[in-house]
Amino acid sequence: MAADLPFPPRVRLVALGQAATVAALILAAGALAIAADAQTAPTGRSTIGRTWLIAEPDALSEIEAKVATLPRDMSKAFGPRAKWSALKSAALAPATADRVRTVVPFYTLDFDIQLPDGKTLYPKGFTFNPLTFVKLPQRLVVVHPRDLGWALRTARPSDFILLTALGGESGDPITLTEKTGRAIYILEERVKERLGLTVAPVVVAQAGQKLVLTEFGPRSRRLPLGAAGGAQ
Predict the structure, then answer these.
(1) Domain of life, per the record (predicted)?
(2) Residue among 71, 125, 101, 79 at smallest CA distance from 197
């Protein structure tokens, strides 16, 4: 069965993209944490302003190293892919009408961020809007498996397509990636909560220091591309 076939190298990299998606969506305090270990970087060139070394290891390198240790045929180690809990998407109800709303993804630190000299830079409990410091370079198109065709027509080349569950059916992102030739990801529960998602299909885009959630009802999903207007 297709679910038990070994991963082609291209498809195995879906895991890398999924991890990168989560890292961007959680919008944790990474930008602030860098300051905690800040040091002036040595350089042989003229430098205007202060510079800092990045204390964290390269995330992509760590992910690639981990993927390299996994067996090529995952079904032998973990059973059929249909039973993998890691591929189960968070559930969202179907959108019953068009709606546009905004969300500010405030984040509250659960630890103190300190400078090397012990001085507290940001205390535990400090709340801020990560969108003040970062910009999401792509939109998120979140759909049920039944609406994947609509998502493929609607999504821009740079957008991420995420599957959400409906009635216990969440789809197989690996099989769908092979079939469509486009990377398909899953919607994780923490991302759903972080972004305040309640229904699908929904397109999430950054507008300044807030997120705009555009939800599409049944009629809009049946309209030709561009007729609904909301996803453009």
Answers:
(1) Bacteria
(2) 101
Enclosing H/E stretch for 114: strand 113-114
Q: Confidence class of residue 72 from pLDDT cuts 50, 70 and 90?
A: confident
The dihedrals phi and psi of 148, each to the nearest 5 degrees, come to -65, -40
| Tens-digit pLDDT profile for residues 181-218 | 999 999 999 999 989 999 999 999 999 999 999 999 99
Q: At what angle do helices 14-26 and 173-180 cross, to 10 degrees?
A: 110
CA distance 222 to 2: 31
CA distances from 145 to 91, 105, 149 (A): 11, 26, 9
Centre a 10 Å sphere on the Cβ of residue 34 and count the other Cβ atoms it contains: 15
- For 35, the 3-state DSSP assignment is helix
Look at residues 11, 43, 21 and name the one whose alpha carbon lies nearest to residue 191. 21
How much is the pTM? 0.63
Using CA of residue 53, residue 56, residue 60, residue 66, what is the dihedral sign?
Answer: positive
